[in-house]
Amino acid sequence: MIVWLRHGQSTWNAAGRFQGHTPHPPLTALGLEQAYAAAAEAAPLGIEHVVSSPAVRARQTAVVVARALGLPVHLDPRLVEQGYGEPLDLVDARTAAALADVPNGTALVVSHGDVIALAVSRATGEPARLPDNGELQIVP
Q1: CB 2, CB 123: distance < 8 Å
Q2: CA-based, 20 to 30 A from 70: which of 60, 64, 89, 115?
Q3: CA 121 – CA 100 distance, rounded (Å)
């Protein structure tokens, strides 16, 4: 099972700025609260692995959740957000490749809105939907 988590609100989310591959925008105070709330929501799910985009906002979110679960965070650069002008089929392909390397068991994957929307749509056949900051989505 994959449990997707969109990173908490970043300073650039709050300002309405496009982040794409920009790695440095950190979480806001609200984003940190969202990460702690996600950790509490994830606690009963039997998470065995935590994998994250290396972008600061995703990594900060992943560390909060992983610490609460007593797990390490594994970073995968293929989970970064869609870059400016990057075709969605390329985002989908690199995300699928990253998922193929996730260990068996229940994994929490911390990433970004477009990446999660595409991956969940691909796995469920449902239309793509951009998740909110700090939102968990479970794909059995």
Answers
A1: yes
A2: 115
A3: 16
What are the average pLDDT values for consecutive 10-residue runs of the chain, which has 140 residues? 97 86 90 98 98 98 98 98 93 96 96 96 94 96
**Catalytic site residue 33?**
no
Catalytic residue among 49, 81, 112, 135: 81
Please give the order of strands across the beta sheet that includes 49-52.
Answer: 73-75, 49-52, 107-111, 2-6, 136-139
Determine whether 7 is an active site residue. yes
Structure-block tokens of residue 35: 């990460």
**Token pair recorded at residue 79:** 């989970």
pTM across the whole model: 0.95
Q: Which of 7, 49, 112, 135 is labelled catalytic?
A: 7
80 contacts 26 by C-beta, under 8 angstroms: no
Neighbours of 20 (CB within 10 A): 17
The two structure tokens encoding residue 26: 């950190």
Place of tokens 């985002």: 91
